[in-house]
Write a structure and sequence with these properties.
The protein has four domains: 90 residues, PAS domain (Beta-Lactamase); 107 residues, PAS domain (Beta-Lactamase); 160 residues, Alpha-Beta Plaits (2-Layer Sandwich), CATH 3.30.70; 258 residues, EAL domain (TIM Barrel), CATH 3.20.20. Helix 14 packs across helix 15. It has an eight-stranded mixed barrel, surrounded by four helices. The protein has a five-stranded antiparallel beta sheet with strand order 5-4-8-7-6. It has a five-stranded mixed beta sheet with strand order 10-11-9-14-15, with helices on both faces. The protein is elongated, with a radius of gyration of 47 Å. With 658 residues, it is an alpha/beta fold. The structure holds ligand C2E and calcium ion (2 copies). One calcium ion binds next to strand 21.
Length: 658
Amino acid sequence: MNPKFEEVSGYELADILGENPNFLKSGYTSSNEYDALWSDLLSGKSWKGVFNNRRKDGSEYWESASISPIRDELGEITNLIAIKEDITQQKKDNDNLKMAAAVFDATQEGIMTTDARLRITAVNPAFTEITGYTENEVLGNSPAIISSGKHDADFYKNMWTVLLRDGRWSAEVWNKRKDGSLYPQSLSVTVVSDDRGEVSQYIAILSDISERKAQEEKIHYQAYHDGLTGLPNRSLLMDRIEHDLELAKRTAHVSSLLFVDLDRFKRVNDTMGHDVGDRLLEEVAERLKSIVRASDTISRFGGDEFVVYLADISGPEDAVLVAEKIVESLSNPFDLNGFEVFAGASVGIALAPNDADRPDELLRLADLAMYKAKESGRNQYHFFALKMQDKVNRKLALENLMRKALDNNEFEVFYQPIIDSVSKEIFGFEALARWKQPDEGMIPPSEFIPVAEESGLIAPIGEWVLEQACHDISVLDSGHGNGKLHLSVNVSSRQYPLGFNAASLNNILVKTGFSGHLLSLELTESILLEDDPDLLQWLSDFKELGVNLSIDDFGTGYSSLSYLKRFPINVLKIDQAFIADLNKEDDSASLVKAIIAMARSLNMNVIAEGVELQYQVELIEHLTCHYMQGYYFAKPMSIAELTEWIANYKLMLSKKDL
Ligand code: C2E
Ligand code: CA
Ligand code: CA
């Protein structure tokens, strides 16, 4: 043995001289291997192979050996010579490489390697699976091929800073598959440096986490939603209320919480089974959804309790409107598995910040109010605040009284003269509804018109006023006007959806013999703001009958004159407030002057309303406004009073007393 063998095996020649080399065996080389060895050697051939051996200190090592027989002149084998090489390290490296290759191929995570100049040098099968790109398609390309475009320059700048500083970087990023679809992935990049410390390659490991993301979202969703109805649950509701109340402190808006409790859920559940009960709750959720704005929150609060949270409303009336719709909608029968089921609901209302400005307190008060609603007979809503409830009760009482008022002939039409600014002659009259309620006395239109509008009763009332006025002025005209007296009648914008139209107007004109071109319909600006393509047609149809269309209370709404131009409007009534503001000293007249000038340029007639004082008359005349109306000339009066008034006025005019 030579010194190298001593070094590798740890044995010295003296230790082992004369020994069989058996002692080198580790026991891990199979006996087949030795059999092959001996059969080669004994037949005179050389043998090459690998042993797993054991050093003197007991540790294992691998060696490759080449053993050759040496023969004498007779051809007999006399010696064996073995040339050995320690290949332990080599074998280890080799095994590692093999293992790395196997891992590269078999791992679930996509792997992409690039050279120092960022050209892709290898990708594994998982990469192909995730991105849709085969190795051939990406080799030599830049990794940008899979970037989604969702991350900005700063994002990549930060990536390079970290990567070059720490040698590794990882993040969740959006990338793009070959088919163009985007997916979230977790990505980690490692820098590989060569012996001199220069970057030699980059290794990127990526995995598709869309499923994990989806799972996370699902878990998040489940944590905040009711399993049965899919509505936000109590936690999400509380979050939203809290958020809104915070916001309300800064923007000073009003919000409302409606506590909805089904009146007969328990009966349904007990008698028809839980399946039917569940179906009912689902249906209730659907009906509630169809009532509120998308920005409102409906929550299943537990059992048969729902909470509707209306953030940022214009006032308690909005809450009333929604509560009414809820009560009405849930009182309609449900069709459950072929059965007609009546559930009904009671609603309690609390207002923020008036009643409470904390979520739990708001809920508690609305819950209390809901019990009040149940006590007073179910299928109702109830405010927590008494003052609110008084208003509601008054409104409901009025509505009930009003239902009978038409049949009982409790309505009357009053007339207020409209005067020509130049000649001071009577131009016509505005018809104004009056309600003489037997028990309550005179109820002013400012109180009953809004209730009539909300309840829909404005439809029959409006048409009744129109017909009565056309009739009255027809009769009056045949005595005093000779076909010259005009009539203005107020039309509520609610009458549009309720079905009042040119055909109904025409019936009235025919019935009363009143001529369309002497009639003006007074509408408020708000109707022109309605987003309805049929509205223009509705207005044009009136125009076809020769009727004038007038904008009442002009200046208080949002419309500009140029906006009005789009509609067939030919009369403007300047709101009373502007006339009341007219002042002899300052230039408050300039606004009125501007309205008149612009209206004239659009060929519209202008009426100044609420004229009460002598100097207003003079000023308005000076501003060339066509007509005037107001207490200065006359208050609204009954048709009987009007007849008398006309006679007096004419007398006065002829004496030039005005
Ligand atoms: P409006 O259409 O602006 O009617 C003018 C209101 O101003 C009338 O009040 C009238 O009495 C009042 N007024 C007239 N001259 C003066 C004045 O010189 N000074 C003051 N301070 N006020 C004056 P009224 O009759 O109480 O009617 C109130 C509102 O109710 C009307 O305002 C109108 O919007 C509505 N309304 C009345 N009748 C009807 C109707 O038949 N249908 C509809 N849809 N609304 C009606
Ligand atoms: Ca009016
Ligand atoms: Ca008016």
